[in-house]
Design a protein that fits this description.
Elements lengths: L4 E3 L3 E3 L14 E6 L5 E3 L3 E3 L3 H5 L15 E6 L2 E6 L2 E3 L6 E4 L2 E6 L2 E3 L10 E4 L2 E11 L5 E3 L3 E11 L5 E6 L5 E15 L3 E7 L4 E17 L1 E6 L17 E14 L3 E6 L6 E13 L5 E5 L1 E10 L4 H4 L24
Parallel strand pairs: 1-4, 2-5, 3-6, 4-7, 5-8, 6-9, 7-10, 8-11, 9-12, 10-13, 11-13, 12-14, 13-15, 14-16, 15-17, 16-18, 17-19, 18-20, 19-21, 20-22, 21-23, 22-24, 23-25
């Protein structure tokens, strides 16, 4: 094995004009592929010069055609790579993508883009396993961290997120596809002024599962949707049709979550009527609304809470199991079906 070290000490700046972009590489800029045991470090800056790309987005101007834009930095089909101390800013679209890779360690990375920059996920993980992200500060116009299909054993620690759309699993199941995500841990994070906090989002009609997820030791400051599971996600210009199939969501633990919600629904579990959420566990939750009363919303979500939980989440135990298919999985902890040490 040849050891590779990439030292980025200065600033790498992308071309400003989208028309100057290589048409043979419309979705990528800086790519590291088929590496093993590499180090990418140096404290430098990767600047995507994204402002003109954002202005051309259909999310900014609905008269524009919807087109993909480059990802600023990609690690693909690699293993045992470490990335440390870089800043990635103003990406054309996503900032940093990890795909089809194993044993990637990310530390001390900063992502910086304005809150109105469209589709600019901070760190995006797909088809990868054994990924560690720690001590990172991410401010952007989309998900701070997004985890999508065929990803497992993802550990995040000491994450500062905001602005942005929070920490997201999904979206999964679009166009009736299979989505599988398992073994996700977020331990110690601060989310400030984000659209969402801890989010799992799936489209109707998909299949597969999300399970063995733990979010703990998270502080929220003025977050619009602090805790949300949405199995009716629809990021489409047309109305999404109701479907009975869904990605199954189970074994999700929220522990030591506190802070303020911008909206009344501090916790929202909007789950499928035919493939309900199960084994949802809440422990030591304290979410308040600065002006008004916070509440918990449930649709076909079953589990339990213990310790101090505010707002109350009685709907997890009392949701109408006769209406929700699979309601027999009512997850009363006395049956011993929930492992709270995921």
């Amino acid at each position: 094995m040849i050891f590779v070290m990439v030292q980025i000490a200065g600033t790498i700046v992308a071309p400003e004009e989208p028309r100057n972009w290589d048409p043979k590489n419309p979705r990528i800029w800086i790519v590291f592929s088929n590496l093993e045991g590499a180090r990418i470090q140096g404290g430098g800056v990767i600047d995507g010069s994204g402002s003109k790309w954002w202005a051309a987005s259909c999310k900014i101007n609905k008269t524009n055609p919807c087109r993909g834009a480059p990802t600023a930095m990609t690690i693909d089909s690699s293993s045992k790579v470490r990335v440390k101390g870089l800043t990635i800013q103003s990406a054309q679209q996503m900032h940093f993508t990890i795909s089809r890779s194993v044993a990637i360690r990310i530390s001390g990375v900063r992502v910086d883009s304005p809150p109105d920059s469209p589709n600019t996920d901070g760190i995006h993980i797909s088809e990868s396993t054994d990924i560690s992200i720690q001590n990172c500060r991410i401010g952007t116009g989309d998900d701070c961290i997004s985890i999508v299909n065929a990803s497992s054993n993802i550990k995040m620690k000491n994450i500062d997120c905001g602005p942005g759309h929070g920490i997201s699993i999904g979206s999964l199941g679009k166009d009736n596809s299979v989505g599988i995500v398992t073994g996700i841990v977020l331990d110690t994070a601060t989310l400030t002024g984000t659209t969402n906090g801890l989010r799992i989002k799936t489209w109707q009609g998909g299949s597969g599962y999300v399970r063995s997820v733990r979010f703990e030791n998270v502080k929220m400051d003025d977050v619009e949707n602090p805790i949300i599971i949405d199995q009716f996600y629809c990021d489409s210009p047309t109305v999404c049709k109701n479907k009975t199939e869904a990605v199954k969501i189970s074994q999700v633990i929220y522990r030591n979550i506190s802070g303020t919600s911008r909206t009344s629904k501090a916790m929202k579990f909007a789950c499928s009527d035919t493939v309900p959420c199960s084994n949802i566990v809440l422990n030591n939750i304290n979410l308040e609304r600065e002006n008004g009363t916070a509440e918990t919303y449930c649709n076909c979500a079953m589990g339990f809470d213990y310790g101090f939980v505010r707002p109350a989440a009685d709907c997890l135990r009392n949701d109408d199991s006769s209406r929700c298919s699979g309601g027999s999985e009512n997850n009363n902890r006395k049956h011993g079906q929930v492992n709270t040490e995921l």
